[in-house]
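Hi there,

I know you've been waiting on this one. I reran it after we fixed the sequence typo, so this is the corrected version. Both the input and the resulting structure follow.
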Amino acid sequence: MSIGDLYAIGAALVWSFALILMRVAGHQIPPIPLTFFKNVVALALFTLTLLVLGEPLYIALHSSDYVRLVISAVIGIAVADTMIAAAVNRLGASLQALADCAYAPSIAFVGFMMFGEILSTWEIIGGIFVLFGVFVGATMTAEIKKPKDLWVGILLAAGAHVVMAVGILMVRDILREESLVWVCSFRFLIGAFAMYIYALVRYQGRVAETLFLGFLRPDMWRSMIPMAILGPYLATLFWVAGFKYLEAGRAAIFNQLSTVFIILLAYFLLGEKLSGRKMLGVALAIVGAGLVAAH
């Protein structure tokens, strides 16, 4: 296996553990402060990594490249990460993993819309499998509090992957030319800043007790700090590295292994049930995602 393969598989594995911890923390910390906490911790870790590696904190890029990086960070980190946290709160970890199968088709769809990459017959068939799998597996479980949460959660999760795909693919050329750690650091800096500006507008005088709630709850740091290290820091590094060293399709199929990892972890660590319908939906969605990513 190549180093790129290992990066992509590593991204799936560490992200799976991070999502389980996100599920635990999400019982008490709402999506926006939870996302802000993990993004700030990740930013600190990326900055420390730059200093340890002796890499510059500023890179001279064209202004248009910086504009793309800013847009990529706002939609791919501030928006998409919050959508994922909200989806996990509604669906639970295993159904979230099922919705995550929209990842590979999202990459293919966005690649077509942004770069004119033509969808093959197999990619179209794979997309149909994914959609069918999500509909088959999308059933009420003990983790879902209200019927509305089922479809809202699935739409949030699937939509997050489309947004995330746009965010990463619009700066793919920069990723391949510049330092991975620096690009990740800059994106998380902008993502955290965007969330702070949003909170100032929305919460006004209540920013401290809303956006910074995660920092005010040391009793939750036991799950939140490992979540931040595994998810936005390690998983992001591995995920971006996979796209740098591999073709998008090959990276996506290895990333999709997170579906299997999350479902197994949710069963063993969270006690979430594995119904036959859910497993069938997962199987269909994984087959579809594989067809998209492999072709």
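Quick highlight: The chain has a mean pLDDT of 84.

Best,
R. S.
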